[in-house]
Design goal:
Structural class of chain A: mainly alpha
Radius of gyration of chain B: 31 Å
CATH class of the largest domain in chain B: Alpha Beta
Number of strands of chain A: 2
Number of helices of chain A: 11
Order of helices and strands of chain A: HHHEEHHHHHHHH
CATH topology of the largest domain in chain B: Alpha-Beta Plaits
CATH architecture of the largest domain in chain B: 2-Layer Sandwich
Order of helices and strands of chain B: HEHEEHEEH
Oligomer: heterodimer
Shape of chain A: globular
Largest interface: A-B, 15 and 16 residues
Radius of gyration of chain A: 20 Å
């Protein structure tokens, strides 16, 4: 194998890889309606109301109804739009989101009917950089979508989103450098293994990194208080102004998928992945459930923050990213590096 | 004309200084922002603990007050069964929205409808125009028309919102819960 390519920690037979990628895709994608539903129901509870409770038991079928409604709508396209790019841009968004989910580990390598299977899509040696690479490509989805719409609102929204995502990607990456230095590896499974052997989840020693990561994650997933890409009071709807129906649904799903991925990375990097606290060591089949529960709790934090904070002004967003988070993340990385070296 | 520069004098006792927060920015600002964010999170979490304070409207209705002005009712005398309305059209005259239409007719000895000389042959209220001001109720000399408590008056057709005399005389469905006196 060429040394330019990243090495993969453990690789199975091809049919297991296809099978498990399908399972992980289905599990990951069913987190999207869950996140959507949590978003609406929890938001309601935070505002002393119920949230949607009409479709199905406790409103549980609301996301299905939403998605169905969007899918049966007419595929509208502005006359000024660039056809091919207009159609492909939402696909880029959702595909990159799905690919990035592959690195979130749900457990270590386990023995299923005598076959060794890693409970993750892929465990490359570049680890979290893989996710950053794909979330950087996801910016193309927004940019192309906004530009190809042939509308000024879309274009302005796309510019704004791109600027925001690129700015916060820097702080997000740097906030994880502390974790990477502490563990001495980029591989997510090995980071969890390090937290296991250290006996401490990394959000305690890397608290500054954790806070910076979470703030940057809110901005990366364009969640409130950083939902400027869809600041409807100023921009109509941002880059997806001209989108409707299924294409809008894929943008929407990609947005929630990004939230799930960010939560997954946060769980793996800072909350010990599939580990349980207080030395509880359950059988391996519990591991994915532990990860999913932690994932849901982190998503709940996303919703909680959404219910609390108002949207930032654009210049505040930029100055927070470049003047506060970036120095903080850099200082955190430096201090961690010094401590690790001295130790 | 010369510009006179007033020297600053300390404000009197009646002047209240505006309370301003500390300047944003710096390490202190960052610390305060973090603290205030946590305070905000605590506030919203309190709402979560409180639980919803919502009426599930079509199933749960908020009781209306006794003097609530809803859909009109026309009345009959309880003993004789005659209509109270004598077709005087005072309600139509008082109506600022001009939504009441009354056509009066003479009572015949063999065909008595109301207690007076005349009765309302046609009595229509256009509910899509009515502003529920209650002036008709005030104008009526015989208390023949009063404001009821029903407010669910939506319909699919505008024509269906013109309530005829029979509809107004009929015992209302009373779908609206009423508050008790001391509530």
């Amino acid at each position: 194998m060429s040394t330019v390519l990243a090495t993969v920690g453990y690789s199975e037979a091809w049919w297991i890889q296809i099978l498990k990628s399908l399972v992980i895709f289905i599990v990951g994608f069913s987190m999207v309606p869950l996140a959507l539903m949590m978003d609406r129901k929890l938001m309601g509870r935070f505002q002393n109301r119920y949230g949607p409770n009409r479709v199905g038991p406790f409103g549980a079928l609301q996301p299905m109804a939403d998605i169905f409604k969007l899918l049966v709508k007419e595929q509208f396209r502005p006359r000024t739009s660039v056809g091919f790019l207009f159609a492909i841009a939402p696909a880029i968004s959702i595909v990159t989101a799905c690919v990035a989910f592959a690195i979130v580990p749900f457990g270590n390598t386990v023995d299923i009917f005598g076959t060794q299977v890693g409970l993750y899509g892929i465990d490359p040696s570049i680890g979290v950089l893989f996710a950053f690479a794909f979330s950087a490509i996801a910016v193309y989805g927004l940019m192309l979508g906004g530009w190809a719409s042939g509308s000024k609102y879309s274009f302005l929204g796309a510019m704004r989103s791109a600027a925001q995502l690129i700015s916060y990607e820097v702080s997000m990456g740097l906030s994880l450098v502390g974790v990477i230095i502490t563990c001495g590896t980029l591989s997510l499974t090995q980071i969890v293994a390090h937290q296991d052997s250290a006996g401490m989840w990394l959000f305690i020693p890397q608290f500054v990194g954790f806070v910076v990561f979470m703030v940057a994650a809110f901005a990366e997933t364009s969640r409130p208080p950083f939902d400027l890409p869809e600041a409807d009071a100023e921009l109509v709807a941002g880059y997806n102004t001209e989108y409707g129906g299924g294409r809008f649904a894929s943008y929407y799903a990609a947005e929630y998928f990004h939230m799930v991925i960010a939560s997954g990375i946060a769980v793996t990097m800072f909350f010990g992945g599939w580990l349980l606290p207080f030395g509880i060591d359950p059988p391996t089949w519990v591991d994915p459930i532990v990860v999913l529960v932690k994932l849901t709790l982190v998503i709940a934090i996303f919703v909680w923050v959404r219910a609390t904070l108002p949207r930032l002004r654009y210049d505040q967003l930029m100055s927070l990213g470049w003047k506060v988070l970036l120095p903080l993340a850099t200082a955190n990385a430096l201090v961690t590096a010094i401590i690790v070296t001295v130790k | 004309m010369s510009l006179e520069i007033k020297r600053w004098t300390p404000p009197g006792e009646d002047v209240i200084a505006v309370q301003r927060g500390p300047e944003p920015g710096g390490a202190g600002g960052l610390y305060r922002a973090f603290g205030e964010t946590l305070r905000g999170l605590k506030t919203t979490f309190g709402r979560l603990v409180e639980g919803p304070i919502v009426y599930q409207y079509p199933e749960e209705k908020i009781p209306v007050y006794p003097r609530f002005r809803g859909r009109h009712k026309l009345h009959k005398f309880e003993d004789t069964g005659l209509e109270k309305c004598v077709g005087c059209s005072l309600c139509a005259a008082a109506c600022p929205a001009d939504c009441i239409r009354v056509v009066a007719a003479e009572n015949e000895p063999d065909h008595r409808v109301s207690a007076g000389e005349r009765y309302a042959a046609v009595y229509e209220i256009n509910m899509s125009r009515c502003i529920f001001c209650g002036y008709c109720e005030v104008a009526c000399p015989f208390d023949a028309i009063t404001m009821g408590h029903d407010f669910e008056l939506s319909d699919y057709n505008r024509d269906d919102l013109i309530f005829t005399k029979e509809m107004l005389l009929a015992e209302p469905l009373e779908r609206t819960p009423l508050r008790s006196e001391d509530e």
